[in-house]
Specification:
The complex is a heterodimer of chains A (400) and B (383).
Chain A: H1 3-33, H2 41-71, H3 83-107, H4 114-152, H5 166-173, H6 175-206, H7 212-220, H8 227-238, H9 246-253, H10 268-294, H11 298-306, H12 311-322, H13 324-340, H14 343-348, H15 358-365, H16 370-399
Helix pairs in contact in A: 1-2, 1-4, 2-3, 4-16, 6-7, 6-10, 6-13, 7-10, 8-10, 10-13, 13-16, 15-16
Chain B: H1 11-37, H2 41-46, E1 56-63, E2 68-71, E3 74-80, H3 85-88, E4 98-102, E5 111-112, E6 117-120, E7 123-127, E8 132-137, E9 147-154, H4 161-168, H5 172-203, H6 209-219, H7 225-238, H8 244-268, H9 272-280, H10 285-296, H11 298-314, H12 317-322, H13 332-343, H14 348-368, H15 370-381
Antiparallel strand pairs in B: 1-9, 2-3, 3-8, 4-5, 4-9, 6-7, 7-8
Classes of the chains: A mainly alpha (400), B alpha+beta (383).
């Protein structure tokens, strides 16, 4: 069974399941649970829904492993469940669904005054039907881990060994952690500043050029390249050999004969790594700031020119203040990204030579010491928290 | 604004030049990688990729033949050094003009090509520019020819050997398929889930809507790192373990906040008239969503799919954690970062080629769908 076929089957099941869920749940809501009118098909639909859910369950839990196994797609079988418990679950589910529908039937009949109420009730429930899969997935994979990670970080390498804040204490005492925290701080200052500045510069310079769009498109290109790919690209530039690396070739041109490995120069090597992320993110900043620049009302610029403003004043005193809000958004977006990127350090230096940052430091402990790894992850979360709160406040202002 | 009197500034040329400089600065690293991926391994370490169109002086060694003709008491061996398989192996693109030769590895370019050299004991050797040589020796050469070192111009040669090697013997073909396998379901599945949720958040009125939107905005920035340990443990407990199934779930969830946020921002901007008149005509929310909102939101759906595609294709972290670490299920990023960089650290040709194979598809997607990507970025960041 080639894995790609598994992928295609998963797409079919995923998309089909989604459509089926949304369609059937709406049908159940409108026709069975809170019906607006009594139709002959109501009992039928109700019965079908009553049957489909338990049957689906039965299929996945019990028949699934055998059938899928025979078809060679055993990966779809979720886990081993004994026959009896599967049948029991299905029976309980069947009875429960039936009783539930019966209860709804008597409580909310599609007759007389309760018809209008039924429509309102259905409309009150519907948003949650639409939201349920997204909320489920988000809750499981992003909300629960915040708590789950914190809880796990209170235990040692052995998940039964409660150590309280021991992991955090030993982190605070570890020089490696302090180095990576400091480096992360440098990254979070330098990368957003440089990317935003360069992005603004390019956006402004290309604004009036006839070939501006081509230039923008080329500077935007690194956005499509993976961090790993970008790291490799720059590994060539930094190579410790004047016949491979551009940096050493330029040095050789100026007469320095001994090639240097820029990734091993203490402290400054961090900046050589940051260059890679700046190279990637400048395009992002440029695209957004360029749109913001285009959105500035022409009148303000005309008025400034008539008042005799020179190009510098025009840019710094008229344009920049008007797009300040966008600059802040770009800046924070890049800051958040910086706090999460581990690929560059991992690929370029593996965290050696004093270039460790928090995300790569965490990966050192992943699979080895989950307690320590989750503690570092939680520290990253704490660092991101102020930005998160600020983002939420801004979003609330907009939606109001 | 340029036509206003007095603003046609002298800065125009400076602008053109500085933009050109920036663009070149941005492009050069990638071009270097691209050129290197087509170069022969020996050439890469012999000269920079910026010299690729020019010939390189390469030192090589070979052995003369042993077929001697006797002239008096001297044996004369003639032939062409490029006929020797060892010497030939240095020049896959064909040997060029020989500049110098020598007889010891310590000084391979000791003598100028074309000048006969006395080697002592009555022996003499001459190697000409075109590779022909004449070796005179008083003794029968037997079955060992004379060792010859020489420096020759190697003409610029571009090959696709690296690509052949990477795609056939280095397992990158497998990794490519794996990446595709991770990417496609992880791009398609979240779209529908997110679209329904986004519709509810944009056009349905219910208590708690504002709070939910705020939660989605908050979740946009939750670091992935937090989810790694708890979710891997959960996957192991329910029997998914490290598998493609697990990574599809994980990517679906990690892309969800952006998807919901992006699609909601777009759907809110749809004309209210259309939606309300459809409601008045008796369309249910489900019909309204499927028939009107979904088709109108295609640009936003496209934008999100591109994002999610690029993100899952380029991802290293999630793949390292949620996929098994055996060779059969490595994706390209993991393959490059863990295998090629680790064990093949010095094989620049293979590295460049592998990197280029992995970035080719995103680049194609990027350049063909740039319009949607930009629109999506703008919808997500500037409101």
């Amino acid at each position: 069974m080639p894995i790609i076929v598994q992928g295609l089957i998963t797409i079919l099941i995923g998309v089909g399941g989604c459509v089926g869920y949304f369609y059937l749940s709406n049908l159940a809501l409108d026709k069975v649970i809170f019906p607006a009118k009594e139709t002959p098909s109501r009992r039928l639909v109700g019965a079908i829904i009553c049957l489909i859910i338990p049957l689906g369950l039965l299929f996945f839990l019990y028949v699934g492993p055998t059938v899928f196994g025979a078809l060679g797609i055993g990966f779809l079988a979720l886990s081993d469940v004994s026959t009896i418990s599967a049948l029991l679950a299905v029976a309980v589910f069947l009875v429960a669904t039936f009783l539930l529908f019966k209860a709804f039937n008597t409580l909310f009949p599609a007759k007389g005054s309760s018809v209008g109420d039924n429509i309102n009730r259905a409309n009150a429930v519907r948003p949650w039907l639409f939201l349920f899969p997204a909320i489920f997935v988000l809750g499981l994979y992003l909300v629960y881990p915040v708590v789950g990670s914190f809880w796990r970080s209170l235990f040692g390498r052995n998940p039964n060994d409660f150590v309280g804040f021991g992991n955090y204490v030993s982190l605070a005492q570890s020089p490696d952690f302090r180095i990576s925290f400091f480096n992360n701080f440098l990254w979070a200052i330098v990368v957003p500043a440089a990317s935003t500045f360069l992005g603004l510069l390019v956006a402004q310079l290309t604004d009036k050029l006839s070939w501006g769009n081509i230039a923008k498109s080329l500077i935007f290109m690194p956005m499509a390249i993976s961090f790993v790919g970008a790291s490799l690209i720059w590994k060539f530039v930094y190579a410790n050999d004047a016949d491979i690396g551009l940096i050493n070739a330029v040095r050789a041109m100026f007469g320095f004969d001994n090639p240097i490995d820029v990734l091993q120069i203490p402290f400054w090597n961090n900046f050589f790594l940051m260059v890679i992320l700046i190279w990637i993110q400048t395009g992002f900043a440029m695209v957004i700031l360029s749109a913001a620049l285009r959105g500035i009302p022409e009148e303000t610029i005309e008025a400034a020119i008539l008042d005799g403003a020179n190009p510098w004043q025009l840019f710094f005193k008229i344009k920049v203040p008007q797009i300040m809000a966008t600059i802040v958004v770009v800046w924070t977006t890049i800051t958040i990204l910086v706090l999460k990127v581990f690929d560059i350090v991992y690929t370029m230096t593996g965290g050696n030579f004093g270039t460790e940052i928090l995300p790569s430091y965490m990966m050192d402990f992943m699979f080895r010491d989950d307690g320590r790894a989750t503690a570092i992850a939680f520290v990253i979360m704490l660092v991101v928290l102020p930005v998160m709160v600020w983002n939420i406040i801004e979003a609330r202002k907009e939606t109001r | 604004m340029d036509n206003i009197a007095g603003t046609k500034s002298s800065l125009t040329w400076a602008t053109h030049l500085s933009v050109l400089a920036l663009v070149l600065l941005w492009l050069i690293p990638t071009i270097g990688l691209f050129v290197s991926s087509f170069r022969d391994r020996d050439q890469i370490s012999e000269s920079g990729w910026w010299q690729a169109p020019f010939a390189v002086e390469l030192t090589a060694r070979g052995r003369t033949g042993t077929e001697a003709t006797q002239e008096g008491d001297v044996y004369v061996v003639t032939g062409n050094i490029y006929d020797d398989p060892e010497a030939k192996s240095y020049f896959p693109g064909g040997g060029g003009e020989i500049v110098a030769f020598g007889t010891s590895g310590r000084n391979p370019g000791e003598f100028e090509a074309g000048t006969p050299v006395d080697l002592g004991d009555g022996e003499s050797l001459v190697v000409n520019g075109d590779g022909t040589y004449e070796w005179r020796t008083p003794e029968d050469p037997g079955d060992r020819g004379q060792r010859v070192y020489f420096a020759a111009e190697s003409p610029p040669s571009f090959t696709t050997d690296n690509y052949e090697q990477v795609l056939t013997s280095d397992g990158m073909d497998r990794a490519f398929i794996n990446t595709l396998t991770v990417t496609i379901p992880a791009t398609i599945i979240p779209i529908l889930i997110a679209a329904f949720a986004a519709y509810a958040l944009a056009w349905m009125d219910f208590p708690g809507r504002g709070v939910l939107i705020a939660v989605v905005v908050g979740l946009l920035v939750v670091p992935l790192q937090l989810a790694l340990v708890p979710m891997l443990n959960l996957h192991n407990r329910i029997g998914i373990g490290q598998s493609f199934m697990g990574i599809w779930f994980a990517h679906t969830a990690f892309g969800m906040p952006l998807a919901v946020y992006l699609l909601r921002n777009y759907m809110v901007g749809l004309p209210r008239d259309i939606i309300e008149s459809a409601k008045v005509d008796g369309a249910t929310d489900f019909e309204l969503f499927i028939r009107i909102v979904l088709p109108l939101s295609l640009p936003a759906l496209a934008a999100f799919s591109i994002f999610q595609f690029l993100w899952t294709w380029n991802d290293l972290l999630v793949a390292k954690v949620f996929l098994p670490s055996d060779d059969a299920s490595k994706v390209m990023t993991v393959k490059i970062a863990d295998d090629l960089l680790g064990s093949r650290g010095g094989d620049w040709g293979i590295l460049a080629t592998a990197a280029f194979v992995s970035i080719a598809v995103p680049l194609i997607v990027f350049f063909s769908m740039q319009r949607f990507l930009v629109r999506g970025l703008l919808a997500g960041s500037v409101k």
